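During the second half of the funding period, the structural biology subgroup turned its attention to how the target accommodates small molecules. The most pressing case was zinc ion, which had performed well in the primary screen but for which no bound structure existed. We therefore specified the complex as follows and requested a full 3D prediction, including the ligand pose.
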Amino acid sequence: MQKALHPFTNKLISYKEYKEFSLTNNYTTLNVTPKTTCPVCHNDLNARAGQKQDNGHFAHQTNDVCPTKEPAARPYLGLTEFPVDATIVNANKDFTKNNIEAIFSEISNIAIYLDLKEFISILKEAKRLNIYKYVNLVPEYIPYVLVTLINFLPKNSYQKKRNLKFMFFYENHIQNFEDLWINNGINSKLYRISYDGSTTKKVTLIPTNTIYLTSITRTLSQKQKEWCIKEL
Ligand SMILES: [Zn+2]
């Protein structure tokens, strides 16, 4: 990946910034410099010089287990069974219904070239997993749960315009969606990983907020809204 967590802080840094860190702190080589870590699994990453100038990157060690290497193993998709409270399910679904356009717009902002059909497949997956049942779910953060449910493939994007594959992950200590909202989402960092084929290219920290509810950047027609709502 092209960015990794700084050895001592929570900042995502590039290979170039890591080299600067090494130099500033008087390490002779990158080998003896404290390692950067993966934002998702927090394992140490190896710095790899690029073949060309400026395409250095970071790589997991071969035996590390990390959901970014095995996207199917996203831990929070493992669901625990507990009694479903219909009031909560309805409140979360009502929120989604009433803000369907804002949610579509926000997901478009963080997964660019979102196609309406991709959005529909997210809603179908949400229904299948019944993510609306989570008691600690803060409705305003629903878009940031929804994005983790599918892989955003270039071939499914709007007019096939997306070049890279996107997947969204929470840090690996999140074992269940329930854990996400214990601190109202504030301590749960959401990352977007971009892949070129199966090579991790880029890691981006995605800010989670509620501004999207009032600043809609992509609209849906009445018919499109109805189509989405049918899938809840
Ligand atoms: Zn990792």
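Two results from this model are relevant to the next phase. The first strand starts at residue 3 and ends at 5. The mean pLDDT is 87.
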